[in-house]
Amino acid sequence: MRFLIQLIGAGLLYALSFAPADAATGGEPVAVTQVDVAPCLAAAAADDMDKAATACAEVIDNEKTTKADLIKALIARGALYARHDQVDHAIADDSRALLLDPGLADVFNARGELWLKKGDKPKAVQDFGAALRIDPNHEKAKANHKAIAREIERIGAQMAVAGKPSFNCGRARWAVERAICGNRELADLDREVFASNARAIREARSAAEAKALQREQDEFIARRNADFGRPGYDLKKAMQERLQRLNGVDGY
Question: Any coiled-coil ranges, and where (predicted)?
């Protein structure tokens, strides 16, 4: 009998040795401590880079962080980086958030704006388009997409006429015209002068003012043709001065 009691006691001790040391009273399992994302969000909202650096890293780098909280922390820190012009860091956080949830229209739009800051228009257009595919009524994405599309169209139009003057080089008669046709910078200047003069005439307050502006342009062309090739004459300078007169000191 004594041997049986000792055997039972040893068995109980063996079983207890495998029980969790910190088990709750009553045999309930200990709850896993959740990662608190609130300090990260609060620090980012307060624009506190120092606190956010620590608080958000604790959330983002913790393997126990839930997917939802990880996304919140990445978006918050990314927005904070963006406000402080740390564009590459902001793009990295937004990109990671989008990998976790590719349905975030706001984040696509935010990253598109960051690509614009870096001067990467194609990537910006892609992100604005992605935001609109998710939410066709996303106002910021619509405005951004429209603006960048116009900019790309304008650049394309400029490239199409780059290095081409306002006149047909095949019909160039004057030496100055042939010089302009042979120099891309002078050709661009000539085209700008022509366009600015046309705008000034179009915006003239009266027919008499428009006529006076055209007469002034004709006199500039005649003087340019006559003076080109003479000692001391600077064609580029003359064209720049004419352009400045047409557009005003501030370019308007």
Answer: none
Our CA dihedral for 44, 46, 47, 49, rounded to 10 degrees, sits at -70
Q: What is the pLDDT of residues 194-215, one digit of tens each?
A: 988 998 999 889 999 999 999 9
| pLDDT at site 45 | 95
Q: ∠ at Cα 150 (147, 151), nearest 5°? A: 85
**Nearby residues of 62 by Cβ (< 8 Å), 6 or more positions away:** 35
Radius of gyration of the chain measured on its C-alpha atoms: 35
CB 197, CB 246: distance < 8 Å = yes
**How many CB atoms within 10 Å of residue 159?**
9
Is residue 69 left, alpha or beta, with left meaning phi > 0 and alpha meaning psi from -120 to 50?
alpha
Q: Is the dihedral of CA 19, 23, 26, 27 positive or negative?
A: negative
pTM exceeds 0.90 for this model: no
The SS3 assignment for 223 reads helix
Quickly list DSSP for 4-60: HHHHHHHHHHHHHTTS-TTPPTTSPPPPPPPP--HHHHHHHHTT-HHHHHHHHHHHH
Going by C-beta distance under 8 Å and a sequence separation of 6 or more, which residues neighbour residue 3?
none
For residue 7, pLDDT beyond 50? no
